[in-house]
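Aim 2 progress update. The chain analyzed this quarter is reproduced below.
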Amino acid sequence: MIISLLDAQKEQRYVQDYNSNYYMGGTGYYGTPMVVQGAAMMPVSYGAYYNYYSYKLGIAYESGYYVDDITYFLECNLYDVAKEELLWSGRTKSLNSKSVEEEAPKFAEMVVKDIISKKVLIP
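Predicted structure tokens:
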């Protein structure tokens, strides 16, 4: 049996932080007071642009962070050495594996179940 790493693809994505502590307050659409659960109503002055600026102020201060996702693509081939032929082949992908030691037992279990279910090897 030969197991090979075919590819490792890295992708960065942005995760939005929805912490309500960053909300700056303001009014709702067309000057109607906006109520945020757990927050006190902030004094606002109605008028200019229907308070559109103060309504959008909280969005400008939202925070977030970037994370790197790594996808590993593996291939496993089982050969009959005496006959020099391929008996079984399988491919899988794993997202954000923490360690080889953690993923190896899961991968081995998947391979064994598939080989037995397809009756390539009979235990």
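Residues 20-29, 43-55 have pLDDT under 50 and may be disordered. The chain has two domains: 2-12+69-117, 19-61. These observations will guide the mutagenesis experiments scheduled for the next reporting period.
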